[in-house]
Amino acid sequence: MIETHCHLCDSSYDADRDAVIGRAFTSGVTKIIEIAESPPVWEKAIELTRKYENVFCALGVHPNNADKFAGFPDLLNDRKVVAVGECGLDYYRKNVERKVQIKVFEEHLKKALDLKKPVIVHCRDAAEDVFSILGAYNGITGVIHCFSSSAEFAEKFIQLGFYLGIDGPVTYPSAKNLKEIVKKIPLESILIETDSPYLTPQIFRGKRNEPSYLGYIACAIAEIKGIAASEVSKVTDGNASQLFGLI
């Protein structure tokens, strides 16, 4: 399984980061993409990719930090930086003006096109604007991280050529809308991700999430679709390898 979105540079892992990564690899995770969503962790993420052959990363600025955006680092050219992001729009928290978020989001899209790398898109309560903006950038590709919008927008994003990231909420009993969407959309449009240390699967709710729990997400998708978990892993691994250029 390929873990396509986690935050191992988060301080919650400072005491046992290596052990967490070790558990991931022994649990069936073969590759990890670390998401460094703010300048303070860019260097730290690169160091992590140097330490582990099968750890890659993405660099960007989260929309909730968009007002602190001051340009991109040369580190984006590094061979182990496989995407630009996490970037996008977050209209839920409302702590950064929308016009600022939009400007910074578009800067990420321009950079991604320039580097010929995919984008990892954060979209919370902002599907209409995210879809409209992405549609204006021909050739852009990527993933809508932790998809939480409607079935209508699921289809729209897929038509744009984007994958949908499916996380721990797919295991929650209350996530009926998400389960219906997962049931309908093709497996070829799905990436699996944990968003660790957040969005812990139901079985571990209330505890810190980690990449070793990725299998619970694959199993939940398999149950919803009535297929084997191994099939979910196989297809989503292929999706991730194609999008991020992983060998």
List the keywords.
247 residues; TIM Barrel; globular; single chain
Number of strands: 8
Q: Could you say how many structural domains there are in total?
A: 1
Amino- and carboxy-terminal Cα gap: 13 Å
**Neighbour order of strands in the largest sheet:** 1-2-3-4-5-6-7-8
Explain this structure:
The protein has 247 residues and is α/β, with parallel strands linked by helices. The chain has one domain: TIM Barrel, CATH 3.20.20.140. Helix content is 38%, strand content 17%. The protein has eight helices and eight strands; from the N terminus they run βαβαββαβαβαβαβαα. It has helices spanning 17-26, 42-51, 98-115, 127-135, 151-159, 176-184, 214-225, 229-244; strands at residues 2-6, 31-36, 55-59, 81-90, 119-124, 142-145, 163-166, 190-192. The chain has an eight-stranded parallel sheet. Helix 7 (214-225) crosses helix 8. The two termini are 13 Å apart. The model has no long low-confidence stretch (mean pLDDT 97).
Structure described in brief:
With 247 residues, the protein is α/β, with parallel strands linked by helices.
Topology diagram in text:
Blueprint: E1 2-6, H1 17-26, E2 31-36, H2 42-51, E3 55-59, E4 81-90, H3 98-115, E5 119-124, H4 127-135, E6 142-145, H5 151-159, E7 163-166, H6 176-184, E8 190-192, H7 214-225, H8 229-244
Parallel strand pairs: 1-2, 2-3, 3-4, 4-5, 5-6, 6-7, 7-8
Helix pairs in contact: 7-8
